[in-house]
Description:
Layout: H1 3-16, H2 22-29, H3 33-46, E1 49-53, E2 63-67, H4 69-108
Helix pairs in contact: 1-3, 1-4, 2-3
Amino acid sequence: MDREEINFTLLRILDKNPEFTQRDLSKEMGVSLGKVNYCIKKLVEKGWVKANNFRNNKDKRSYKYLLTPKGIEEKSKLTISFLYQKMEEYEILKNEINKLREDSNKLQS
């Protein structure tokens, strides 16, 4: 995953699951805990995510990650970007599948 994809994935997951721990995020995304920690810090620095301690939690290391208005805007931009990227990939795969079908039909004839 490149940086933009990691940011998009983090914003998407945190939007739905703000109570996820960094360990949860690491498992969900299939990346190291250190990478998640680094990326979360960068998202906080950019002002896209706000990290709040759970006030009543015994484990004071627990945070709730909330997307800021800037983070919501960035998530929207990244969503559109990835949608176009995936549509292009889909068209390429669709064309490749059609070519393989044609080749297969030729071999069976």
